[in-house]
């Protein structure tokens, strides 16, 4: 493993523009993704060279391809494989630090002249897109990366200098990118290698003029007790022990309500209709029919209305997230106990968690207190 020398290397040990090599017998994303495309995209066959994917799939169809791959990522089979990679290769780099992993990795497909299709990834640093400094990124090529079709990165010192200048001078994007390009270098790797970096590192894409497609996957981990930014444990990140997908509800409910409010750090600025629209896909996925939509009174941060709603006979109440619960642990435990005593399940749509036992309480609190 190549180590980047820096005065602050220990802060981002092993994740400061470092290259990690791994065995494709443990995780072969090239094979995985190609098999998915063969199954779902008629234009792709066993003879297809993924570097030439752009010759058979046009730019507007890239999203169709990505959707099928994302569906394959959201399976137990994929989780088992990716967990094995984390256990073997990432865990030893963390000095026994507890961590969570990104629930659904990101897939990037960079076709030649992607700028013409408005698909060029802008230069940025991770903090600007909601990643806290406790997050680490694993960037993994699925196809060989070659200069302009690859990701470009800056070193940490240049990234910090340009970030500060951008903020101080309120630079427009063009001026910021020009500064970044003076220091940026491509990450040229092959399958079996991955690039490890932290959220202060500026990175992005230039226009791909190599006439080959680049496919890559980026995954993130969150170290326990470190800043998460806007990427919450339980939703964006999952526990590594969750090797199987949450089971769908197999129950038929007669009395179920949704509950929304503005009484936590997460929800206080999320409008009511957006909360309900975010809950709806969970209900559809689990074949849950809603009896009524209710809400909490704004500014009453202890959430008194929920005690009125959770009464014997109510089978389930569905909330946006475990982070929609009150910030005060005393108030949260009041709600937990009310639900359990009245035999009312509390469903958290974002995390796909269900509270029905005391063990569920401890899991929710462990996740909430992770970062």
Q: How many structural domains in the coordinates?
A: 2
H and E order? EHHHEEEEEHHEEEEEEHEHEHEEH
Query: What oligomeric state do the depicted chains represent?
Result: single chain
Q: Look up the CATH topology of the largest domain.
A: Jelly Rolls
Which percent range fits the helix content?
25-40%
Counted by DSSP, the helix tally is 9
Which structural class do you get from the secondary structure elements?
alpha+beta
Give the DSSP E fraction (strand runs of 2 or more residues). 15-25%
- In CATH, what is the class of the largest domain? Mainly Beta
Describe the structure.
This protein is of the alpha+beta class and 371 residues long. It folds into two domains: 231 residues, q2cbj1_9rhob like domain (Jelly Rolls, Sandwich); 113 residues, Resolvase, N-terminal catalytic domain (Rossmann fold). 29% of the residues lie in helices and 18% in strands. It contains nine helices and 16 strands. Strands 1, 2, 3, 5, 8, 10 and 11 form a seven-stranded antiparallel β-sheet that branches. Strands 13-12-14-15-16 form a five-stranded mixed β-sheet, with helices on both faces. The longest helix has 15 residues.
């Amino acid at each position: 493993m190549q180590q980047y020398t820096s005065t602050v290397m220990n802060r981002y040990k092993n994740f400061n523009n470092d290259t990690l090599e791994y065995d494709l017998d443990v995780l072969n994303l090239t094979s995985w993704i190609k098999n998915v495309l063969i199954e779902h995209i008629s234009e792709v066959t066993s003879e297809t060279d993924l570097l030439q994917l752009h010759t058979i799939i046009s730019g507007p169809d890239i999203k169709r391809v990505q959707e099928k791959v994302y569906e394959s990522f959201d399976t137990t089979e994929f989780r088992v494989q990716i967990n094995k990679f984390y256990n073997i290769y990432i865990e030893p780099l963390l000095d026994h630090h507890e961590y969570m992993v990104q629930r659904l990795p990101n897939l990037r497909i960079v076709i030649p002249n992607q700028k013409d299709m408005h698909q060029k990834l802008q230069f940025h640093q991770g903090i600007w897109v909601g990643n806290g400094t406790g997050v680490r990124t694993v960037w993994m090529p699925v196809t060989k990366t070659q200069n302009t079709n690859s990701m470009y990165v800056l070193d940490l010192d240049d990234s910090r200098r340009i970030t500060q200048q951008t903020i101080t001078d309120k630079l427009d994007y063009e001026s910021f990118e020009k500064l970044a390009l003076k220091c940026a270098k491509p990450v040229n790797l092959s399958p079996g290698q991955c690039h490890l970096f932290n959220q202060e590192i500026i990175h992005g894409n230039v226009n791909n003029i190599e006439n080959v497609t680049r496919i890559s996957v980026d995954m993130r981990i969150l170290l326990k007790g470190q800043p998460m930014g806007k990427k919450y444990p339980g939703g964006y990140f999952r526990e590594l022990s969750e090797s199987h997908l949450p089971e769908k509800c197999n129950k038929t409910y007669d009395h179920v309500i949704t509950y929304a409010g503005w009484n936590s750090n997460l929800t206080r600025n999320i409008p009511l209709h957006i909360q309900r629209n975010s809950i709806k896909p969970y209900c559809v996925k689990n074949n849950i029919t809603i009896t009524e939509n209710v809400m909490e009174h704004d500014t009453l941060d202890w959430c008194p209305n929920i005690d009125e709603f959770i009464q014997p006979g109510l089978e389930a109440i569905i909330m946006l997230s475990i982070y929609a619960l009150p910030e005060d642990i005393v108030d949260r435990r009041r709600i937990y106990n009310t639900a359990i005593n009245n035999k009312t399940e509390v469903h958290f749509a974002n995390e796909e968690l269900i509270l029905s036992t005391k063990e569920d309480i401890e899991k929710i609190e462990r996740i909430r207190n992770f970062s």
